[in-house]
């Protein structure tokens, strides 16, 4: 990146010097809004590919380039750092409240800002977010929608001001100049010279200084008498450890605790990165003006295959090559490259069939001989033999794999189980002087025989259901016919059957309006008013649509069928005012 003009017009806050010491500070009861208009004429801005940065507190130093011995170190700032979304991202600009360092000469910036601390690494804010230094001494970060993102938690603790020290430590202090809160107690992914990591503190990996998302959660922590690096799992998996004489690790010129580092020729910083490496960077002013890596710190103790994510999930590291687990003895391939490219498998491998706890009867262990793992500390103490080790994994669905290390024979060894499987390591037993095999849990698909059995049983069940349905239907129909035959002793049934069957009124000339038997019974009040008798039946009085009518009912439908048809045909041919 080429040089960028430094606009030294920072007046967003009052900068004061305390007791003759260079202490850039901010007064209380201040609020800063994260937008360009608020910082207009008060912002250092990098053109080109670097992120925008909007300083609130600034410590400027003029560095004489190409003359490191006369340099005082980097310029430092605390403020908003913003990364514009790339062309394939739909998200808004992502910003952080951060401490950053710059390399500048007079009015020229020679580097993009390097973030050394962030208040909100996992919760980026948007344009118009606000940082407020309240009157009760609390530093609060709100997003543009007003939601609380971060707080220093220092309300009511007599905070008098905020300063940025010469080594990049953001400090809130009281009226006695005592430290109330400091960013060094809450490290993110960077350590700077003079910074100590105390027991319980950790550096957490992020993708970059301004893009904090990462696929794997990896961290380096200071625990009792040591520095340890883990990849997050249940439990966390350890891949690096280094003894320390004290319950803290301090980054100084030439060392990090008991770890020796290259001596500084210029400004340095350590960054714990998303691939699990701890790298030392230094500003190079002699040949080209840029940050260069001068040491991959853990590589002094670990080879490439010892890093958890070098080949991704289930990937097998063989030197500098990544492969997916080999097929079984029967030739079944259980894993494929995650990115679909067999030539480039460093993104990890996916199981062809995900392991399901609901089908544990179909679990099997895929044997990978001469394969080990970076962490074998999660030991199954009751499993001393290879068979016991494998069975222990098959009996527990949370077990994704087991590593069995042993000596001359596999009747006795150390069994370690994994709830998450990261990069596996191909080993040479002659070199490492032990034997090791990995057993990866895979999900079997039902065999063709089992499929045929399942299909046959399914069809048999369907056949039984169909036959039972037919039998029940026939029984119901016969039952109905029997009941109907019993009911047909009554006139209503005979009449309804004949009407629905052989009585073809539509073929009669002059066909009158047809009424149902139920309608006739209703209009005659159930044939209650008898007027007289005629051939084959009786005549009853009734009312139909408000008019009085006479209704003739045959006493036997089958005996009077022809006569009824004759009467209907005769009546249908008569035109009379009282005939309906």
From TrEMBL:
Compartment(s): Membrane
Binding positions (ATP): 552
Gene Ontology BP annotations: response to other organism
SUPFAM superfamilies hit by this protein: alpha-D-mannose-specific plant lectins, Protein kinase-like (PK-like)
Molecular function as annotated in GO: ATP binding; protein serine/threonine kinase activity
Keywords on record: ATP-binding, EGF-like domain, Lectin, Membrane, Nucleotide-binding, Receptor, Signal, Transmembrane, Transmembrane helix
Bilayer topology: Single-pass type I membrane protein
Family matches, as CDD domains: B_lectin (cd00028), PAN_AP_plant (cd01098)
GO cellular component: membrane
EC number(s) on file: 2.7.11.1
Domain called Apple: residue spans: 357-438
Membrane-spanning parts: 453-476
Catalytic activity: L-threonyl-[protein] + ATP = O-phospho-L-threonyl-[protein] + ADP + H(+); L-seryl-[protein] + ATP = O-phospho-L-seryl-[protein] + ADP + H(+)
Signal sequence annotation: 1-18
Pfam families, sorted: B_lectin (PF01453), PAN_1 (PF00024), PK_Tyr_Ser-Thr (PF07714)
Main location: membrane
Record domain Protein kinase: where: 525-580
Protein name per Swiss-Prot or TrEMBL: non-specific serine/threonine protein kinase
Annotated ranges, domain Bulb-type lectin: 67-185
Stored InterPro entries: Bulb-type_lectin_dom, Bulb-type_lectin_dom_sf, G-type_lectin_kinases/EP1-like, Kinase-like_dom_sf, Pan_app, Prot_kinase_dom, Protein_kinase_ATP_BS, Ser-Thr/Tyr_kinase_cat_dom
């Amino acid at each position: 990146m080429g040089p960028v003009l430094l606009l030294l017009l920072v007046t967003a806050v009052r900068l004061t010097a305390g007791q003759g010491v260079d202490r850039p500070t901010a007064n209380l009861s201040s609020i800063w809004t994260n937008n360009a208009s608020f910082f207009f004429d008060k912002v250092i801005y990098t053109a080109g590919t670097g992120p925008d940065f909007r300083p609130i507190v600034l410590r400027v130093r003029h560095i004489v380039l190409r003359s490191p011995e006369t340099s005082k170190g980097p310029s430092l700032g605390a403020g908003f750092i913003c990364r514009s979304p790339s062309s394939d991202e739909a998200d808004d600009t992502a910003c952080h409240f951060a401490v950053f360092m710059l390399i500048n000469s007079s009015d020229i910036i020679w580097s993009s800002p390097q973030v050394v601390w962030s208040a909100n690494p996992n919760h980026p804010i948007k344009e118009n977010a606000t940082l407020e230094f309240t009157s009760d001494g609390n530093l609060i970060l709100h997003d543009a929608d007003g939601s609380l993102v971060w707080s220093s938690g220092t309300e009511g603790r007599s905070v008098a001001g905020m300063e940025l020290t010469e080594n990049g430590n953001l400090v809130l202090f009281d009226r006695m100049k005592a430290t109330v809160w400091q960013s060094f107690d809450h490290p993110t992914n960077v350590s700077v010279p003079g910074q100590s990591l105390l027991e319980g503190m950790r550096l957490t990996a992020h993708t970059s200084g301004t893009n904090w998302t990462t696929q794997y959660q990896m961290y380096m922590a200071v625990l009792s008498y040591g520095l340890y690096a883990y990849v997050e799992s249940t439990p966390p998996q350890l891949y690096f450890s280094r003894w320390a004489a004290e319950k803290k690790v301090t980054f100084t010129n030439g060392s990090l605790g008991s770890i020796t580092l290259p001596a500084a020729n210029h400004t340095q910083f350590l960054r714990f990165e998303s691939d699990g490496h701890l790298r030392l960077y230094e500003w190079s002013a002699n040949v080209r003006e840029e940050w260069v890596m001068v040491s991959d710190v853990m590589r002094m103790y670990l080879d490439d295959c010892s890093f958890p994510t070098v080949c991704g999930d289930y990937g097998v590291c063989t030197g500098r090559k990544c492969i997916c687990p080999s097929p079984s003895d029967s030739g079944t391939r259980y894993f494929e490259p995650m990115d679909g490219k067999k030539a480039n498998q460093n993104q990890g491998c996916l199981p062809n069939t995900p392991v399901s706890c609901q089908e544990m009867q179909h679990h099997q262990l895929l044997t990978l001989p001469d394969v080990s793992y970076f962490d074998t500390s999660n030991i199954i103490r009751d499993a001393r033999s290879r068979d016991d080790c494998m069975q222990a994994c098959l009996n527990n669905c949370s077990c994704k794999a087991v590593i069995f290390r042993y000596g001359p024979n596999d009747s006795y060894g150390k069994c370690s189980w994994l709830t998450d499987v990261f990069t596996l390591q191909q080993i040479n037993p002659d070199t490492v002087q032990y034997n090791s095999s990995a057993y990866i849990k895979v999900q079997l698909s039902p065999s063709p025989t089992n499929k045929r059995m399942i299909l046959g049983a399914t069809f048999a069940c369907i056949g039984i259901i169909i036959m039972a349905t037919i039998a029940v239907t026939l029984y119901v129909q016969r039952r109905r016919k029997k009941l109907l035959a019993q009911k047909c002793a009554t006139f209503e049934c005979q009449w309804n059957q004949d009407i629905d069957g052989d009585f073809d009124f539509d073929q009669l000339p002059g066909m009158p309006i047809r009424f149902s038997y139920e309608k006739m019974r209703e209009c005659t009040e159930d044939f209650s008013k008898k007027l007289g008798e005629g051939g084959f039946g009786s005549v009853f009085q009734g009312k139909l649509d408000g008019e009085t009518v006479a209704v003739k009912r045959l006493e036997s439908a089958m005996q009077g069928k022809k006569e009824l048809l004759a009467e209907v045909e005769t009546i249908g041919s008569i035109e009379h005012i009282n005939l309906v």
